[in-house]
Amino acid sequence: LSLGAGTTGYNGGDFTAIAGNNFFSGGDIVTAATLLPGNILIQTGGDIGDVHLNAVAGNFGNLGGTIALTAGGDIAIGNALVDSQNGLGGTFSATAGGTIRTRTLSARSYTAWPPLPWEGGEIDLTAIDNILIDGVVQTDGSVSITTRGNLAIQGIASPGNYSIKAETVSIATGTPLSIANSGIPQSFTTGAIVAGGNHIQNLTLSTDTTLLGLQYIRIPPSTSPTPASAPNPSSITPAANLETAIAQALDLSLKTATVETPEGEAIAYSWGPYALWVRATTNNQQPTAPLTEDATPQLTMTEAISQIEATENRFTQTYLHAYPELEEREPIRYAAIRESLEQIHVTTGQNAAILYVWWDVEGLRLGVVRRDRPPIVEVVEVAQDSVKTEVKRLFDSIRNLQDVDSTNLSDLIISPVSQYLEGVDTIIFSLDEGLRKTPIAALIKNRKYLIETHAVTLIPSVALTRILHDNLDDAKVLAMGTTTTKNLSTVLQFVDDEIESISRYRDGEFYLDEQFTSDKIDNNTAPILHLAVHGSQDILELYDKNLKIEEFSKMTQEQAISLLFLSACETALDSPKQELGFAGLAARTNVNTAIAPIFEINDGATALSVRIFYKYLEDNPKATALRLAQLELISGYSHYSHPAFWAGLTLIGAP
After folding, report:
1. pLDDT at 316 over 80
2. Residue 627 vs residues 233, 348, 391, 637, 652: alpha-carbon distances, Å
3. Does the N-terminal or the C-terminal CB of the chain have fewer CB atoms within 10 Å?
4. Contacting residues for 597 by C-beta, under 8 A, at least 6 apart
5. What is the average per-residue pLDDT within 432-438?
6. How far apart are CA 448 and CA 425, in angstroms?
7. Nearest Cα to 305, choosing from 335, 272, 350?
């Protein structure tokens, strides 16, 4: 299949294939062009196989194409090329729930004229099982290879950054792992090789290059005794050459070995059976101190994935046990969690991350899953009661309009993973018991409210969330509200303004008071359902009756509701079951996303938030629209800047 422009055409076409099962081509897919190649996107729930991919930019092009493959099963392809013959290399990424097998992967940059410092593109491979590359991975840019299984590869040619993480690493005999400098000015190679198993085979490093770079090879503890701290490098006799230094360190015959090169000093550190760290510098660049034992990762990637999967599935089973009316869910794997984030990125352009927070015997564990980086788990040693006390203190201080300081809680939940959240647009929180009542929008990151830098959302678990992007550009709304309950016990004076403001931005049906009846919900066809009504997470007080959530769920079961907005509910979160009910509101009501207050909010502030939210919803995803509405209250309405007026509204479900 050719969507390319050949040697005379300028622009290639894009190719997109999305399949619930498998995708097999049996030939080539070409989107190459002289100027601007097209992109290739293939997503499947099953396997991708039997295809060669070409998105090369030709003589006049300055950027190679993008090839992105995502499969729930295996990926088995031939060559994949995103080179640029006169500019920047493109991007190749492959994510598989099973194995990945490829031939040559290339994202090189060629410079014709003028001789500009173009760079190669990025190559990123992530697989749950093994990765086998029957060719060379070559780029002037960066390479990232991550697998819970084993990696077998002929070689890597990359002067840029690279990262390899696998159970075992096997380089084809006679083919060095080359990190040679390409001659690009001021290029300096850095990288890491992490083996969770016990061997790295046939590893050789070129020593005749302008710059060498950083290698960090980590092998887990064996039966050897716990090592002492690293010795002073100056006390060790230099090795004859770099390869000898590496061999000596791996053999543990030397704790530290050094070698002089024409460009500077290269040092290989090894203290104990689990770490080899090689550093090479130029004459004008001093080596940094070796990695200390305390600085080594606490968990391997395999361990992090295992803990995240266990937490995700425990959260799911907790909800299913508490609410047996929910449909049974199968346990899901890390690949499916990561794929949900890839779907968000592809459909919205937003880079989202899931932050799992759960209890552990040591205190808290924080697990971060991103689509573009390996997962991590951080351990926070703290007493469980102390954390719950901080959650209650923050919750009460906001609700009661007192001085608010979320620093202590943020130091426990956000700060330890702050660096891993850089570049993230939306943080999706999945929280353990006792944490789900946290007003997450009012947490602090880098001395700012969290929503000043990120949209936030709460989910029970990925398995219980419909991670779908809904195009709500022209979606109609059914908006209803009660200005008073039927027995006149409660008055909501701003509800009529709230419903009227929605009609400025959305077509649909709008009803107040006696017109707000349960049959309207039962017969609803609008993708957006907005209810300004008193009630709780278990009962909605309509004008004609009190509607239990279970009844409401039956009404909406066959309706394709993308967004449920409950703007006036009085949520009670005084028990673990009530916390569960709130965080699982979207799943319990058969909607993709729900927005509801985590505590009672001022009627006027709610009406204003609703109006601003629907204004921003015209051009933004739901979580972003809510964030922008909250920020506008903070900056544009001084009498509503306290978190009591904006931090309560919480988005639950798909962002």
Report:
1. yes
2. 52, 16, 21, 15, 13
3. N
4. 566, 567, 568, 569, 570, 571, 606, 648, 649, 650
5. 89
6. 15
7. 335
Q: Can you spell out the DSSP letters for 505-531?
A: H--EEEEEGGG--HHHHHT---SEEEE
Predicted confidence (pLDDT) at residue 199 exceeds the cutoff of 70: no
**Nearest CA-CA partner of 236 in 213, 189, 268:** 268
Average pLDDT of span 316-338: 84
SS3 254: coil
Give Dmax (Cα) for the chain: 91
pLDDT of residue 359: 92
Query: Residue 242 — very low, low, confident or very high, per pLDDT cuts 50/70/90?
Result: very low
Cα dist from 55 to 14, 117, 135, 240, 639, whole Å: 9, 21, 18, 45, 55
Rounded CA gap, 108 and 140, in Å?
Answer: 6
Dig out the tokens for 431 from the structure.
């929280």
Structure tokens at 97: 């729930």
SS3 413: helix
- pLDDT, tens digit (0-9, with 9 covering 90-100), for 214-224: 333 333 333 33
What is the token pair recorded at 157?
A: 């040619």
Nearest alpha carbon to residue 45 among 66, 24, 25, 23: 23
Question: Taking all residues of the chain, what is their mean pLDDT, rounded to a whole number?
Answer: 75
Report the percentage of the chain scoring pLDDT > 70: 70
Q: What is the pLDDT of residues 339-362, one digit of tens each?
A: 889 888 888 888 999 999 999 887
Q: Count Cα atoms within 13 angstroms, Cβ side, for 568.
A: 28
Cα(first)–Cα(last) distance of the chain, in Å? Answer: 36
Integer Cα distance of 586 and 564 in angstroms:
8
Cis peptide bond prior to 114, omega within 30° of 0: yes
* Mean of pLDDT values over 535-558: 76
- Distances in Å between the Cα of 609 and the Cα atoms of 319, 519, 612, 627, 637 are 30, 28, 5, 10, 11
pLDDT digits (tens, 9 = 90+) for 387-408: 999 999 998 898 888 888 888 8
In this structure, are residues 39 and 66 in contact, taking their beta carbons and an 8 Å threshold?
yes
* Burial annotation 282-297 (CB, 10 A radius, 16+ → b, else e): eeeeebeebbeeeeee
Alpha carbon 133 to chain centroid, angstroms: 26
Buried b / exposed e along 256-265 (16+ C-beta atoms within 10 A): bbbbebebbb
**Runs of H (alpha helix) within 287-354:** 301-322, 334-348
Q: State the CB neighbour count (10 A cutoff) for residue 18.
A: 13
Write out the two tokens for 637: 């309405």
Letter string b/e over residues 565-575, b meaning 16 or more CB atoms within 10 A of that residue's CB: bbbbbebbbee
Residue 6: partners with Cβ closer than 8 Å, 6 or more residues away? 33, 34
Q: What average pLDDT does the segment 98-123 reach?
A: 73
